[in-house]
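Sequence in, structure out. Go.
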Amino acid sequence: MLTRREFLATAACTVARARLHAQGQSKVRVALAIPSEATGPHMPVDFVGLSYEVQQLSDPTFFSAQNSGLIREFKALSSTGVLRLGGNTSEFAYWKPKPDSPEPEHPQVREVTGEPKARYYAVAVEAVRNLSEFLQATGWTCVYGIGMGTNTPARAPEEAVFVAETLGDHLQYFQIGNEADLFDRHLRDPKTWSAKTYLEEWLSLSRAIAARVPAAKFGMPDVASKVSWLTEIADQWPSIQDPPHVTTLTHHYYFGGPATNPEVNIPNLLKPTTMEKVQNTANIATAAASKIGARVRMTEGNTCYRGGKPGVSDVFAAALWSADYSLLLASNNYAGLNLHGGTGKSVANSVGGSLPGDALLDASGETPEQIAAHPHPYLYTDCDVWLGLSAGAGCVWT
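Output:
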């Protein structure tokens, strides 16, 4: 039986041979056979996913039926993927149901270096309608993020009602809040903020939504790193009367960061021991999910947080890491994962206005032409290895 890394080595070699063979031909067909007698966890057909900032919706033409290039890339990656909208910027979005709807009053928040600045923006009806058409064109479903940091139980249901009606079957569930375990840095009182106070606030918002959208499904808590919150929430769950319908426990994972951290490098990224921490997280998450009868999904992650690292996140090694990481999650019965990216502007806005990788390149001595060759943000864009992984969705992995 092949190990994860032996399988990836085989897949990578197959892709390389196909590329060499394709240099003089218009089409090349590559087949990967999975033994039908294999036993083990089953990879769902919608395992593969991407994650974007909610702020992408401030440009209603981005996720739209007119963005044919993006639709083509989504369909190439998977015919049944999951688009997750969330990120730090989700906490500063507000719903604008009509062109003349006024901007609501916002609470005071602390500005902290490296955290998003309180730059509020509207999510309009047009953006959600276009998103629906985009999902129909790609065949993807959506995990839709509704802000928690500066939202209220009075406002949240208005957005949820329209999103549920407009997206229909393409809406998987609502995710209320993003990385709430870090709210004590700038959005909540660090003296009182905890998994318990988070759950109380989350219940207030989710119940307000469920009152208007009775069939609403939810994911939570979408923590950045404190997976212990999943255990605490699962332990408290039996005491909650008539809890909202939670289908998925969610968390994030980045190998390391920021880009200025010298420990974020290719040798460390590809060490077999790197996956030991991942396995520990998976053990905690799956045990918590089992207690409340939910699935687990890694809804935001990548090689390096705060926009990636030039020379690490934008090279082939990052694709090998993502495939290895994905298969490990699949072997732990995860429902799927969403690698985070988007436009350089939206990702930069989510981390305070600039990408740490920019400073590295500015000091690197590279020419403007060389700098321009890097993707922005600094994330791997050639998904050949991950495409091979998505082709195996629906199969059994051990």
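Check: The first helix runs from residue 4 to 22. The beta strands are 48-53, 82-86, 93-96, 121-124, 141-146, 171-176, 218-223, 246-256, 295-304, 336-340.
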